Backbone:
């Protein structure tokens, strides 16, 4: 059996491991045009802040690749030929396959503005981008960062750590307003401001002004000019679906796959950021761009490529990130678009929920701790845990398993209710039953 | 100030250090490697975390560096079953 995996991120590597669990002897080609191969893309944020060094970003040693008996090919794939079961590389070589996985990930969306091709305009897609940001930051005094999500904030924090004065442009009136509530946004913004970041609300870029091909300043839509040595853009990502789209495989925003992660060509699979996966709960095809889910999808695709029959089920939404140095877990349904019948309640740090019987010591040394839960009729449907993470695993469990909380609902909705204690109680009683 | 509370917290920390071991939640892990980077005795904590295995290396000092530094709260101390505390 010949397997070809295009892309060496979390999904591609997990697929190789999945294939090897079933098929110890089939030939596997792992193709990537990134010479660095497999590294932690989310870890780039901490490479930028200087919390770790580049060599630390590589989870695999040579021995790991040898153990998996995989042939790595450092080439760009030009075309897929589903009818002849071959892929064509840029160097002219063709590689045959019986099963193929497209795990090409996503790329940062770009702004199409005057000056956006100048030196000093950066994004954070891959390790090369991180190196470029670090190099420019050595000499830069001022930077503009544009974008309202996690990646933009990662760049802001990286630049702050490197002593660059950051002007942070937000399109709306607060940070990440479609996920965080107003207090959570303000917590993040205040912490950034304390670190010297200048936040510009309701501000969008109109033009990047250059001098001898380099960024010199920016002009905003309302006509202000701000001097700057670099402009970092993180306004979302686009699945890198072209290989599939060009050969007639069904695509939408990403590559459409069924629950087995097969594309419209049965011998071609897709997984990770590029895959738009059928979600039976919502009845629609959805994109996810999370490292952990990419691994889960890669594993399922790999097992199926090797002849197993597994289905991928999209789990309850769950993400952990660090916002202005606060570990933050986002579980289930939160933010805008939430059903109006849900009641959202939140509490700060005045409670006694630090100790749970089963969790002796989760992260807890934060100066700000906040807990928000979204209470449905019979279940908790979402939660945001900022700072102290003691309750985040219990909440993840309570939301994902749809644990019946009817007995606690009234207590939760009392003004000034000790939410943390109640969540701890729910968790304890749920563990016992 | 309630000193009993203070002592309780101290006791909890000591309990964690003496009777706890580090347990990951692999669904939170992004393989960044900060844990391994900060381990004073070079245990490959990341590999354990990614595979969802507790840090069962007998050299682990339970110093807590990996637990504290992980940016995504992957790691926490849990009680080992070797020496039950409440019996």
Residues:
């Amino acid at each position: 059996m010949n397997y070809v995996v295009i892309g060496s991120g979390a999904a591609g590597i997990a697929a190789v491991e999945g294939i090897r669990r079933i098929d110890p002897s089939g030939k596997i080609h792992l193709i990537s045009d990134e010479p660095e191969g497999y590294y932690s893309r989310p870890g780039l944020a901490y490479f930028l802040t200087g919390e770790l060094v580049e060599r630390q970003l590589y989870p695999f040693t040579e021995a790991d690749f040898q153990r998996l008996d995989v042939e790595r090919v450092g080439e760009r794939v030009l075309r897929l030929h589903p009818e002849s079961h071959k892929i064509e590389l840029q160097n002219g070589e063709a590689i045959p396959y019986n099963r193929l996985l497209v795990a090409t990930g996503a790329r940062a969306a770009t702004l199409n503005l005057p000056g956006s091709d100048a030196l000093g305009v950066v994004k954070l897609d891959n390790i090369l981008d991180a190196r470029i940001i670090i190099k420019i930051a050595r000499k830069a005094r001022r930077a503009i960062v544009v974008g309202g999500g996690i990646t933009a904030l990662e760049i802001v924090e990286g630049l702050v750590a490197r002593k660059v004065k950051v002007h942070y442009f937000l399109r709306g009136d607060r940070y990440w307003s479609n996920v965080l509530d107003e207090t959570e946004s303000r917590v993040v913004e205040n912490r950034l401001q304390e670190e010297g970041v200048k936040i510009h609300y309701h501000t969008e870029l109109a033009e990047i002004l250059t001098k001898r091909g380099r960024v010199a300043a920016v002009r905003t839509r309302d006509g202000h000019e701000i001097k700057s040595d670099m402009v970092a853009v993180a306004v979302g990502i686009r699945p890198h679906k072209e290989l599939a789209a060009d050969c007639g495989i069904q695509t939408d925003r990403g590559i459409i796959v069924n629950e087995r992660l097969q594309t419209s060509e049965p011998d071609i699979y897709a997984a990770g950021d590029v895959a738009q996966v059928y979600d039976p709960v919502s009845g629609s095809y959805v994109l996810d761009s999370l490292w952990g889910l990419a691994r889960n999808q890669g594993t399922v695709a790999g097992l199926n490529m090797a002849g197993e029959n597994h289905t991928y089920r999209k789990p309850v939404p769950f993400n952990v990130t660090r916002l202005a140095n606060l570990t933050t877990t986002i579980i289930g349904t939160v933010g805008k678009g939430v059903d109006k019948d849900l009641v959202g309640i939140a509490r700060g740090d005045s409670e006694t929920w630090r100790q749970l019987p089963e969790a002796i010591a989760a992260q807890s040394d934060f100066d700000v701790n906040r807990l928000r839960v979204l209470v449905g009729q019979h279940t908790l449907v979402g939660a945001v845990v900022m700072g102290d993470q003691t309750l985040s695993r219990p909440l993840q469990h309570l939301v994902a398993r749809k644990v019946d909380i009817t007995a606690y609902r009234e207590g939760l909705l009392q003004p000034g209710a000790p939410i943390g204690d109640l969540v701890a109680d729910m968790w304890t009683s749920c563990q016992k039953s | 100030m309630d000193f009993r509370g203070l002592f309780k917290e101290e006791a909890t920390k000591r309990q964690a250090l003496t009777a706890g071991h580090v347990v990951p939640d692999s669904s939170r892990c992004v393989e960044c490697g900060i844990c391994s980077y900060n381990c004073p005795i070079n245990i490959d904590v990341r590999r354990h975390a990614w595979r969802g295995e507790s840090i069962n290396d007998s050299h682990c000092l339970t110093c807590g560096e990996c637990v504290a530094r992980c940016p995504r709260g992957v790691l926490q101390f849990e009680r080992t079953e070797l020496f039950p505390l409440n019996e």
Summary: The first strand of chain B starts at residue 20 and ends at 24. Chain B has a mean pLDDT of 81.
